[in-house]
Design a protein that fits this description.
By secondary structure, this protein is mostly helical. The protein has one domain. It contains 4 helices and no strands. The relative contact order is 0.12.
């Protein structure tokens, strides 16, 4: 939930406000990174490794600044899903543009692209 500049945060805990600010900022960074990847036709491995670097830096920053010990991991998980969703949505859009009849083949059904993204994120390269 974003807090507009002029809105009073009321009784929200400082950690909650800080987490929301970090989350919003990093979603914007991930969107910019994704847009650059799309415009430059960046390799999946390079892009996903860059996402991982951003997420690990975010987790470290949050760990040093937030009192809630679970917040950095939850923040990293949320941002991971956000980046992965942008990547998968772009993949679906590209498939639809290339061949509208095949736009969902292999993207929604078999989980290959979920596995592919996760594997690169966890190991830095694909195939093994």
């Amino acid at each position: 939930m974003a807090i507009p500049y002029n809105e009073d945060p009321g009784n929200r805990a400082p950690d909650t406000i800080a987490r929301d600010i970090i989350q919003g900022l990093m979603r914007a960074v991930l969107k910019s990174l994704h847009d650059m990847r799309t415009a430059e036709r960046q390799d999946d491995t390079e892009y996903i490794r860059n996402v991982k670097a951003v997420l690990e830096a975010t987790r470290g920053y949050a760990r040093d600044r937030l009192a809630d010990e679970d917040a950095p991991g939850a923040l990293q998980s949320d941002l991971y899903q956000c980046a992965k969703r942008m990547w998968l949505d772009n993949l679906r859009q590209s498939a639809a543009e290339e061949n509208p009849a095949d736009r969902d083949i292999g993207i929604n059904d078999d989980g290959y692209y979920d596995y592919y993204y996760d594997y690169i994120y966890n190991h830095g390269v694909y195939p093994p």
